[in-house]
Design goal:
single chain; 382 residues; alpha+beta; 4-stranded antiparallel β-sheet; 3-stranded mixed β-sheet; 9 strands; 48% helix; globular
């Protein structure tokens, strides 16, 4: 009997939804993946198609154009992509942006942006990281100065996921440099509606080749004062902190799905590949390695499923979310490394899923707050 890694929260309705997601991923995403990796982005058409099928913002209320589901619906999409090694489209960042709007935006902001995001008409990005400020968001130097009924934004951002295709950018900026956390705000920028906004390079990363990760530049970008998220200055840092459990659970979902996909691909490979006259799967070392990998995945799946359920129930705390991000991303790296080793030289080839997974997974220990920061967050809760 095969080892069962299916999520415990997957009910009948979600199983049907999972089938819909799988068809989209297999028929519309997979065939484009190689070309997307060459050009560095998936293009707008794929986003619009996902929106037409109701796959975007699935846990946003129907009143704002979303699917009216919960985080489990989002997790189904991330799971399907990750186990197939598809990293070009980032609906996770798109949904994180949607949740900042849902949880902190004014009613007018929700009505203006969320339906368009759900339809895939605009792609969401959040511009936090700067050349000199990564996990320490209090070190942000981008400035948003109030001038009459507007804010004028100056600064630069880097490593911005969805940056090239973005039609909506939440910009983390200092509105009062004399303050630290209380001097930070989030401003809504629509690139097509402003002057002085510029997209720099689509960055040449070691992995995530199909994902449009870009530099962004703001040179006297002027937006209405109404574009400050929530309508009040100085709330940016607290808005960012309150939504971290959502983001870090996403990373856990992606990690365990990637491990499961890597395990399945490796199991198929070792059963077909022969050495010294017999399948690699027949060697004790192979069987023992796969046993260790399966055990790690089973533990990871149990932990992630609990966090998903707690997030849906509204009881997931920041420390536990940091734990799931820390532990699963570390295990993801170890598991995929072992799977690559079992592929031998073929594992080093990008034409093989395991080779792409190997370079793609490294970022999991960095974004969403580095794993060193996760340890700091966890230790503060002790």
């Amino acid at each position: 009997m095969p080892i069962d890694f299916h999520p415990t929260w997957l009910d009948e309705e979600l199983s049907m939804y999972r089938d819909t997601v799988a068809r989209f991923v297999d028929t519309e995403m997979l065939p484009q993946d190689e070309e997307s990796r060459k050009r560095g982005h998936v293009g707008h058409d794929l986003w619009r198609r996902a929106g037409e099928l109701g796959l975007l913002c699935s846990d946003i209320p129907e009143a704002y154009g979303g699917g009216g589901g919960d985080f489990r619906h989002e997790a189904v999409f991330y799971d399907a992509m990750s186990r197939r090694g598809l990293t070009g489209m980032s609906p996770s960042v798109h949904s994180i942006v949607a949740h900042y709007l849902l949880n902190h935006g004014t009613e007018a902001q929700k009505q203006r942006y969320l339906p368009r995001m759900a339809r895939g008409e605009i792609v969401g990005a959040i511009a936090m990281t700067e050349p000199g400020a990564g996990s320490d968001l209090q070190g942000v130097r981008t400035r948003a100065e109030r001038r009459g009924d507007s804010y004028v934004i100056n600064g630069s951002k880097t490593f911005i996921t969805n940056g090239y295709l973005a039609g909506l950018v939440l910009v983390v900026a200092k509105t009062d440099p004399s303050q630290r956390a209380r001097g930070t705000s989030i401003l809504i920028v629509e690139p097509k509606e402003v002057e002085g906004y510029r997209v720099g390079r689509v960055l040449d990363k070691i992995g995530l080749k199909a994902q449009d990760t870009s530099e962004l530049f703001f040179d006297d970008v002027t937006v209405p004062a109404d574009n400050i998220l929530g309508g009040q200055e100085g709330q940016g840092f607290f808005q960012l902190m309150s939504d971290l459990p959502y983001e870090r659970t996403i990373i856990g979902v992606i990690a365990v799905a990637a491990m499961e996909g890597a395990y399945e691909a490796t199991l198929d490979y070792v059963r077909q590949r022969t050495a010294f006259g017999k399948p690699i799967a027949d060697f004790q070392n192979t069987r023992f390695k796969l046993a260790e990998i399966a055990t790690t995945i089973k533990v990871a799946r149990t932990f992630v499923d609990r966090c998903v359920s707690d997030l849906v129930a509204g009881t997931l705390d920041t420390a536990t979310a940091s734990m799931v991000k820390l532990w699963t991303s570390e295990q993801q790296g170890k598991v995929i490394d072992e799977c690559l080793q079992l592929h031998g030289g073929y594992g080093f080839m990008t034409e093989y899923l395991i080779g792409r997974m190997y370079v793609d997974c490294r970022i999991q220990r960095i974004y969403g707050g580095t794993n060193e920061v996760m340890k700091e967050v966890i230790s503060r809760a002790m």
